[in-house]
Amino acid sequence: MILHILNRPPSSSLTYREALASMGPEDRLLLIEDGVLGALPSQVRHFESVTGRLFALREDLAARGLDGHCDAAVQVVDVDGFVQLTEEADKTVSWS
Amino acid sequence: MILHILNRPPSSSLTYREALASMGPEDRLLLIEDGVLGALPSQVRHFESVTGRLFALREDLAARGLDGHCDAAVQVVDVDGFVQLTEEADKTVSWS
Amino acid sequence: MHDRDTQLGGDVLVILRHPPHGSSWLREGLDAALVAAAFGQAVSLLFMGDGVMALAGGQGQGPLGQKGTAPTLDMLAMYDIEALYLESGALSALGLNRDALQLPAQPLEAADIANLIAAHRLVLTF
Amino acid sequence: MHDRDTQLGGDVLVILRHPPHGSSWLREGLDAALVAAAFGQAVSLLFMGDGVMALAGGQGQGPLGQKGTAPTLDMLAMYDIEALYLESGALSALGLNRDALQLPAQPLEAADIANLIAAHRLVLTF
Amino acid sequence: MRYALLVQGPPYSRQAAHSALRFARALLARGHTLESVFFYHDGVYNAARLAAPPQDEPHLVDAWRALHDEHGTRLQVCIAAALRRGLLDEREASRHGKTGHSVEPPFELTGLGQLIDLGLGCDRLVTFSP
Amino acid sequence: MRYALLVQGPPYSRQAAHSALRFARALLARGHTLESVFFYHDGVYNAARLAAPPQDEPHLVDAWRALHDEHGTRLQVCIAAALRRGLLDEREASRHGKTGHSVEPPFELTGLGQLIDLGLGCDRLVTFSP
């Protein structure tokens, strides 16, 4: 399993397409920084192909007033959980 | 007439939508830097709403091997023409 | 203020296109607006694209405890910056509720945005 | 080389996502690839998204006479970097002709890209 | 006409500063005046006096300086953006108790109000962002 | 596990460096080792010794230094990326005939090969880009 990390929102950047195109069937995607906008119910459709493997960073959601506004399909992790995701992954790939 | 200047390509950035949404019926749009990728025949459809008012910078096309590969709907100007466009405009607005 | 609102005009229009925290664009754009206002100019703000996130309620601190831009928004009125606009399409695209915004801003359709830009002497995009 | 090509594997995969001239990403990514190769690692390159523009023929100089990255591409073979891949969808989205590319690179579909990434110990994205 | 430029992109990593220099030369060649280049956001890195690019690459700091020397264009750097990023002239370094400095004339640290003055006072302000 | 971080974002203008510092603290808190932070692209600006942010803002250069002091994490700066951008230690300044320097220990200018070594030698390399 590879952890992909995305820090751009699908509302303004198409980088998410490259991240998704690069993901294997077991890989996970973590949204951080401005990328957490992708976890909004209005935006999460862009990540349909990785349902169940989509994560968002709690601290970055909270900073933007979005903690609790995430779509239910998104698994929210704090930075400790972020580290844990990197432990469980064989490697990480960052998309910006 | 306002000159809008865009340096991001529609193939990776959605900034072009903000530029287009901000343009009045007489305004012009100049593609520079990586933005000139938008002048390719495969990409120019994104700029349909400003047909006849779409420009691209020759030097930036040439640097990317694209001089002569522009869509016919795009008016190619060199940097002297860029200055001239700013002379003719009331003001300029840059989008990045 | 009312006149300026209905006429959409002013000296300086600052367009804020980036969301809070991910970059310094929003803060540096707001700084430019505050300075222009402090210099006596009639300043308007347009929140556009992801920039409408600047208006979201309940914002917190950044990764290293930065206070973010939400406190700055509360200072706008003190600087007489009361002409606040937002791109209506961006708000709905992000699914934000207008009632939940930290500050009220007037929603604009695309045609109005072009008019707003035309009606200011100086337009700065951040 | 042939084995590595068919197996898509190697030590270091450098993913190049940005077009030439607009930023230093492409050049700095290529520098990382050259250094890895000089250190004896088996290096693969994947041109993805706008990064496929790096392969366009007939590139020229930058605004202040910078030589750009096209000359660097010619050095790849000297460093034994021969595993070159490109995102097939990006090439067609930009309407580039494969025959007009400066260097041949093997087109990959999405599933192959995931395999390519999985088959390298270190993946760097630029 | 009287022009001013706003440069918000860092040197080397983005084309913005290169584009701005090219535009500056072109507007001067057309007989216009370039009052000032204002550096804001990561554009303030253009003022880094110690920049040492390889010999076969353009030297942006020198290119800005040449613009000033030949045409009297002011090179104004937003002081708030600069201090955060480690760009201090001798005066600011001493004010902050630091030894050494990273910005020197003809670049001048100045307030953001100058940008507003330029934008409203010049005939054209053209922005180059990253 | 042995971690290394690659930081490519400048301080202040983008969140990347802030995110990296937060991640660094979290991995250390989980008992891992952080061998090195490698700064490349505009990330090299994190090493600017003269940075003077306002008192109510985080001081990134100091925060990196604290990481080194407390945990022995190396702070490695790509020398080629740094020189172009005006980030020189005393040795490079003298080698380029410049007076003054903009980088000081514990930040160390080093070759890009170190990044490859870290990427292949550590258990995890995590990249924070702008």
Spell out the helices and strands of chain C N to C: HEHEHEHEHE
Named CATH architecture of chain A: 3-Layer(aba) Sandwich
What's the gyration radius of chain A in Å? 12 Å
How many distinct folded domains of chain C? 1
Task: State the strand order across the main sheet of chain C.
Answer: 4-3-2-1-5
* CATH class type of chain A: Alpha Beta
DSSP strand tally of chain A: 5
Mean pLDDT of chain A: 98
N- to C-terminal distance of chain C: 24 Å
When the domains of chain A are counted, the total is 1
Total strands of chain C: 5
In the predicted model, the low-confidence regions of chain C spanning at least 5 consecutive residues are: 1-5
Task: Find the CATH superfamily of chain C.
Answer: DsrEFH-like
CATH topology of chain A: Hypothetical Protein Ychn, Chain: A
Mean pLDDT of chain C: 93
CATH topology of chain C: Hypothetical Protein Ychn, Chain: A
Main location (chains E, F): cytoplasm
Subcellular location (chains E, F): Cytoplasm
Family (chains E, F): Belongs to the DsrE/TusD family.
InterPro entries (chains E, F): DsrEFH-like, Sulphur_relay_DsrE/F-like, Sulphur_relay_TusD/DsrE
Structure commentary:
Chains C, D: It holds the Pfam family DsrE. Chains C, D: InterPro entries: DsrEFH-like, Sulphur_relay_DsrE/F-like, Sulphur_relay_TusC/DsrF. Chains C, D: Belongs to the DsrF/TusC family. Chains C, D: This is Sulfurtransferase complex subunit TusC. The complex is a heterohexamer, with 2 copies of chain A (96 residues), 2 copies of chain C (126 residues) and 2 copies of chain E (130 residues). Chain A is of the alpha/beta class and 96 residues long. Helix content of chain A is 24%, strand content 22%. Chain A has helices at 15-21, 58-63, 79-88; strands at 2-6, 28-31, 54-57, 75-77, 91-95. In chain A, strand 3 (54-57), helix 2 (58-63) and strand 4 (75-77) form a beta-alpha-beta unit. Chain A is globular, with a radius of gyration of 12 Å. Chain C has a single domain (3-125), classed as DsrEFH-like (Hypothetical Protein Ychn, Chain: A, 3-Layer(aba) Sandwich). Helix content of chain C is 32%, strand content 21%. Chain C is globular. Chain C has helices spanning 2-7, 25-38, 70-73, 88-94, 110-118, and strands at residues 10-16, 43-47, 83-87, 106-108, 120-125. Chain E has 130 residues and is of the alpha/beta class. Chain E has a 5-stranded parallel sheet, with helices on both faces. In chain E, strand 1, helix 1 and strand 2 form a beta-alpha-beta unit. Chain E is globular, with a radius of gyration of 14 Å. At the B-E interface, helix 3 and strand 5 of B face helix 1 and strand 5 of E.
